[in-house]
């Protein structure tokens, strides 16, 4: 099984939909430990991405991801915009010229995307950021590949690992981003960026597996 270019476009659309649906939820999470803009940022960014998609829907997957990254960089402010911009730019570098992705290609793209976020934001695991959702998701994909699991199962395990990573941010004290200004008071709240990362990977699993 592989993920064809049209399936990648479907994922981006599903992501835009799920971020619009969860706009207020992400705003609430960011209101508790940040500046209450994460939901609006992500929704605005992915609406801009959707406006750009018709122009590039016949291009390769690398070009599509790079375009998503550039649109996010130019439309989303704060920390989230540059970090998700880097995420998609790096995924695009790994998928240059490809018209479909095997499970290994997707794992490599997601790992590069995560490494881009780490390079740019300098967050470590358990700093209470999106890295805490993305890292277990990448690890789950790699383990699934090693165990020769079918793609559908690998994608489900990856989304589930992201969900667990997201929930594990709740007790953590933030050490990066605005939430870190709160110190100990950031504990007890789920990280908004880890939540949007989970939503993106859940959308991927939902789009790329058929029930
Ligand atoms: P801002 O914090 O500038 O308002 P957003 O609200 O859009 O930006 O995004 C906040 C999210 O960005 C946080 O919940 C966290 O997951 C993520 N984040 C912040 N700083 C970093 C960092 N240095 N590395 C990785 N992720 C980060
Ligand atoms: Mg914010």
Main sheet record: 2 strands, antiparallel
Average pLDDT for all residues? 97
- The number of distinct helices, counting runs of at least 4 residues, comes to 9
Number of strands: 2
CATH topology, by name, is Serine Threonine Protein Phosphatase 5, Tetratricopeptide repeat
Helical content band: 55-70%
According to CATH, the homologous superfamily is DhaL domain
Main CATH class: Mainly Alpha
CATH architecture: Alpha Horseshoe
Give the low-pLDDT segments. none
- Ligands bound here? adenosine-5'-diphosphate, magnesium ion
Radius of gyration, rounded?
16 Å
Could you state the order of secondary-structure elements as H and E?
Answer: EHHHHHEHHHH
State the distance separating the first and last CA atoms: 15 Å
Strand neighbour order, sheet with most strands: 1-2
The 3D shape can be described as: globular
Total domain count: 1
- Give the strand content: under 5%
Strand-pairing-aware structural class: mainly alpha
Question: How would you portray this structure in words?
Answer:
The chain has 211 residues and is an all-alpha fold. The protein has a single domain (3-208), classed as Alpha Horseshoe (Serine Threonine Protein Phosphatase 5, Tetratricopeptide repeat). Helix content is 69%, strand content 2%. The protein is built from nine helices and two strands; from the N terminus they run E-H-H-H-H-H-E-H-H-H-H. The chain has helices at 5-21, 23-33, 38-56, 61-75, 80-94, 103-121, 131-146, 151-167, 192-208; strands at residues 3-4, 100-101. A two-stranded antiparallel sheet has the order 1-2. Helix 2 packs across helix 3, helix 5 runs antiparallel to helix 6 and helix 7 (131-146) runs antiparallel to helix 8. The structure holds adenosine-5'-diphosphate and magnesium ion (MG).
């Amino acid at each position: 099984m592989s993920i064809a270019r049209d399936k990648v476009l479907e994922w981006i659309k599903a992501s835009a939909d799920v971020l619009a649906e969860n706009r207020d939820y992400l705003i609430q999470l960011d209101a508790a430990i940040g500046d209450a803009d994460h939901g609006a940022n992500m929704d605005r960014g992915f609406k801009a991405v959707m406006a750009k998609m018709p122009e590039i829907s016949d291009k390769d997957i690398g070009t599509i991801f790079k375009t998503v990254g550039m649109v996010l960089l130019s439309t989303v402010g704060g920390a989230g915009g540059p970090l998700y911009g880097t995420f998609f730019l790096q995924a695009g570098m790994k998928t240059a010229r490809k018209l479909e992705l095997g499970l290994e290609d997707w794992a490599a793209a997601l790992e590069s995307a995560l490494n881009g976020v780490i390079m740019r934001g300098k967050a470590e695991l358990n700093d209470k950021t999106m890295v805490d959702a993305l890292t277990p998701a990448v690890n789950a994909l790699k383990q699934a590949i090693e165990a020769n699991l079918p793609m559908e199962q690998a994608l489900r395990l990856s989304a589930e690992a992201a969900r667990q990573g997201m929930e594990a941010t709740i007790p953590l004290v933030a050490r990066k981003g605005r939430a870190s200004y709160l110190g100990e008071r950031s504990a007890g709240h789920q990280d908004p960026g880890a939540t949007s990362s989970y939503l993106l990977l859940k959308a991927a699993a939902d789009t790329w597996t058929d029930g």
